[in-house]
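Suppose a colleague, Dr. K., hands you the sequence of a protein chain of 291 amino acids and asks what its three-dimensional shape might be. Before reaching for any lab equipment, you can write down a predicted structure in token form. Begin with the sequence itself:
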Amino acid sequence: MRNRIFLLCFAFSLLFGCAPKESPKEQGAYIEQDAASDEIQEQDCLVKVTFFDVGKGDAILIETSGHRVMIDAGYDDTSEIILSYFKDNGIEKLDYLLITHFDKDHVGGADHILREVETKNVLQPDYESDSEQYQEYIMSMKEQDIIPNKITETMNLSLDGIDFLVYPPQKTDYKEKDNDFSLVVSMTCGEKRFLFTGDCEKERLTELLTQKEFDLTHDVLKIPHHGRKEKNSGEFLKAVSPEAAVITSSDDKPADDEIRKMLKKLGTEVYFTNDGTVTCLCDGVRVSVKT
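The predicted structure, expressed as tokens, is then:
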């Protein structure tokens, strides 16, 4: 008798759709929870990379669990943006300040940072400039008794399990005397890799394309020279094949359309600092980008 009743109920459920179903609200909650689980929380990340909005200039802070590395320092008059972030986040010391080259939009704020924040090591390329911003940078190091490390050979660092490779210019003279002297930094966090390229132009990009020091494929790329196109930009971007790219640009000096099109063709997600500061969080397996 019980078997007959069960069979009848089962038949009715098939005919009239009486089987229990998950409500749309419950489905939505599941989807939201699943999507949220893909986001990296700051307290769980191994490295945080902040690309500050300083106009058409570079100012990039890399934070691990116990160390701080600054790549470039923006302009003289944008240094307060960086120093305010330091103050708000209790940052009183830099382990490394790396100046890729001596253009005013990269070295301009360095003297302010050196005077306000204890800086253990300064890395720079091996050349000199006669610009006012460079002279202020040199003077501030003298005041703090800092002797910069002029990088002429590939340098490797490891901080809290995050590996850095600093790749120096391979020549002592370039057509683009400032930009092509840019130090290039490759950073590895677990399975993910970041590439910071300063203002590399054609000659320096050629060096990167032909070097054997490291694999050029990276997950996140700081686009060279604020998105200016070079004859070998397409070859370079294809070699890097980034999942995400950050362009440090301004509204009045945006990236070249050709660079945007190349990145779109590669399927790269592109972020612009003129839309606001860009933050990357990495847990060694995933990268989360926030603006």
